[in-house]
Amino acid sequence: MEQTTEKTVLAAASFDEQKYFFAPQFSALPQQVQEEVHILCVSLAEKLMCTFLIGFLPSGDLYFETIPSAKTADFDDIGAKLELKEIQRGKKELLKALKLWFLVFHTPQGAQLKEQLLTKASEQENGEEQP
Length: 131
Known about the structure:
Number of helices: 4
Distance between the termini: 39 Å
Largest sheet: 4 strands, antiparallel
């Protein structure tokens, strides 16, 4: 498992292009979570009239990025920041779950944790089967 030192985009939506992108390497996320991310990205891109990106930093923390639309000269940077703060409050559980999922399935530490849990489970199974 390769750990990157750069941002990894999870999803993006463009107001200008009316397009949505979801990174294929995250297709193992539950469908309901993918749909929530889709709705979040598209609604923010439309509301803020920008291209909106959500992704992961190498630490597992989520980042949000807004890129103002070329079609509008009056991008409200302060309004965008307030909207992102509201998302962080209102979608706290979703964001927390995304971070945890990323840490477990896309970092070397997560791979080690999975291995330890599988080993422990296997040992418990073997211990229960023996008299």
